Amino acid sequence: MKINQFIDHTLLKPTATKQQIIKLCEEAKTYNFYAVCVNGCYVALAKKQLENTKVKVAAVIGFPLGAMTTEAKVFEAKNCVEKGASEIDMVLNIGKLIDGDDAYIENEIKAIKEAIGNTVLKVIFENCYLTKTQIKKACKLAVNAGADFVKTSTGFGTDGATLQDVTLMKQTVKDKAKIKAAGGIRDITTAKKYIEMGVSRLGTSSGVSLVQTGVSDKNEY
Predict the structure, then answer these.
(1) Domain ranges of the chain
(2) For residue range 167-202, what is the model confidence (pLDDT) as tens digits?
(3) Helices (H) and strands (E) in the chain, counts
(4) Is 148 designated active site?
(5) Which terminus of the chain has fewer CB atoms gathered within 10 Å of its CB, N or C?
């Protein structure tokens, strides 16, 4: 099991520049990460930089607040796919979830999934703002709507992934969706724990150091 194939190598800062995205892609090629994760304006650039490689491009949608209209999210998702994204990481509408508007949440996820077809859809919850009951509800709604992944966090909230939340998500989705842990994953020990728990993807900006540490530890990760 190689940790590099679990990593979505991520750069989503508002200050991200063209050269930094190019560097991100070069690192992804060097370490054979599963994907790079970027904002929409950099999808075409990332796709070009990663031509003739197996590294995929993931684009974030409705990021980081999730509070824009469903129509805006659908357009953004389709636009990113047209520009070369093979995965979409969308932020669900956190306020609507807290309000208990289950139909809105499920319909929005379903609309985006239908718009992008076979493109992988990951749904970001931002668990730091949710109760355990709300996390379980979000998992069920995402699965019902056809999401491929449920994801812990944007990395821009008050907290990132936690082992407790991932355990809860795993118990809720079972084998009906995969899990992506993101936010605060900066050391090999934590990354290894998530993988052993059954997480399929890690969203992190520390991918290079994780791989280098894993190698220096002579660890199979």
Answers:
(1) 3-216
(2) 999 999 999 999 999 999 999 999 999 999 999 999
(3) 9, 8
(4) no
(5) N
CA angle 104, 152, 7 (to 5 degrees): 125
Q: Is 180 a catalytic residue?
A: yes
CB within 8 A of 35, min separation 6: which ones? Answer: 7, 8, 9, 28, 55, 56, 57, 58, 86, 87
Q: Tell me the whole-structure pTM to 2 decimals.
A: 0.95
CA dist., res. 37 & res. 156, Å (int): 14
Mean pLDDT value of segment 143-172 = 98
CATH 3.30.750.24 describes domain 3-216: no
Select which of 113, 170, 180, 192 is catalytic: 180
DSSP state of 176: S
Q: Which of 73, 151, 170, 178 is catalytic?
A: 151
For the purposes of burial, counting CB atoms within 10 Å of the CB of 159, is it exposed (0-12), middle (13-18) or buried (19 or more)?
Answer: middle
What is the rounded CA–CA span in Å between residue 196 and residue 198?
Answer: 5
Q: How far apart are CA 104 and CA 78, in angstroms?
A: 20
